[in-house]
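Bit of a strange request maybe. I'm writing a small parser for structure token strings and I need a real example to test against, not something I typed by hand. Could someone generate the tokens for this chain?
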Amino acid sequence: MTKLFSQRYGYTSLADVIIREDMPESIQNAICNCYDKLPDASIPDPDVEGYVGVKNALTEYLWCNFLNYRAEDLYEKFRYGEIIDVFIDTLFDNEFPWYSKLDMIEMSLSYLFDVYKNNYFRFKESPFDFEKNLNKEFARLNYAYRIVDHYIVEITSEEEIKAVKEAIDTNNDIVRVHLTSALKLMSKRPNGEYRSSIKESISAVENWCRQYTGVDTLGKALNKLKGKNDVIHPKLRTALEHLYIYTNQEDTGIRHALMVEDRNYTPSMDEAVFMIVACSAFINYLNKKNTQI
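Reply from user aminoacidic:
Good idea to test on real output. This should exercise your parser:
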């Protein structure tokens, strides 16, 4: 027997696409680029009654408060012309686990926004740009974290990854192909095909319902399920109907060609991840309810 699509391409789990509990070199480089873009703006330095560059001030803050080293040791290195880059040294140091590196980013954000709140001149938009750049890179590289209100949060948990894997592993070839195609499209570089990924995710649910009810569209299949002892809660059925309606909107171009010229909505990786997790969870739910319907 020839290998299945998921086996041929190696896409058997969301964990193959979404990077979590790790920080590979590609993401380390992207984070360093964001630090490099910080401006050489000056802020007041109360220790010398003068001004200091933002990067130097941030370096000193992390040196003393993240690495917990003595400030005098840093000044000594500066006096002898030694270049200290806490950001790069920490990110590429294997002694620091991935979560400590994210701690450093959070501490950097906290410091930079404190500087911003103190209304120091020449430093107005930089903290926001830094946060925006990090989120952009995290999304581009399919990193399972985002910065929300200056804190790093996980967008894809182990439970969500397990839900997708279960849906792929326990269903027929067609459902499996739709879900693995969604993963493949989501993971394309340099930019994922998120519209097509979302379409594949909802198509997996549609196929499950079609094979069970014998009707050709998800909307009709859901209506037919209403007559099957009503085991599926009406609100859950409505939620699935709304996901289906979302994929058919004229301004998304997901299931049909774009019908709105001046569209402001473009599906992102976040929507693609949400849809494959939601659709996989629905399929797993329907599988369990199938014995009762």
